[in-house]
Amino acid sequence: MKIDKNFISYNKKLTMRAKENRKNSTKAEKKMWNEILRNKLTGYKFVRQKPINNFILDFYSSEILFAIEIDGDSHYENRKYDEKRTVILNKLGIKVIRYTNIEIINSIDGVYLDLLKKIKIRERELNKPPKSPLSGGLELK
User: Fold this and answer.
1) Range of the domain at 113
2) Where are the alpha helices (DSSP H) in the chain?
3) Fewer CB near the last or first residue (10 Å), C or N of the chain?
4) Is residue 6 part of a domain?
């Protein structure tokens, strides 16, 4: 049996809600998943709607403890909650990055390039050998 050294416990009550969220993804979540994350274009495996602690993360890679959150129209109403949530996740060692629905819908290529930069930074933070497509010679600063 393989044990994931990066396993972080979660509230089991969130499992069904996460499953429902996967079935009812937003347009931006679908676009991010189908065009970037599903095919591991980042070099890492991501999962959708991952329960961690008492939260459900939009996308998560346990390999690099990296969460991607998609902020919808209600983001401005929930800013304080999101900030507190990010602090808790950071204390668990999880790096959280955010994109808006509009960024993903209107500029998926720009989001992809930005995501690759942030993953490369995360690899350095964790002293991991580069796995992202940027490690092959293309250098973004």
Assistant:
1) 23-133
2) 15-23, 27-32, 79-91, 101-106, 108-125
3) N
4) no
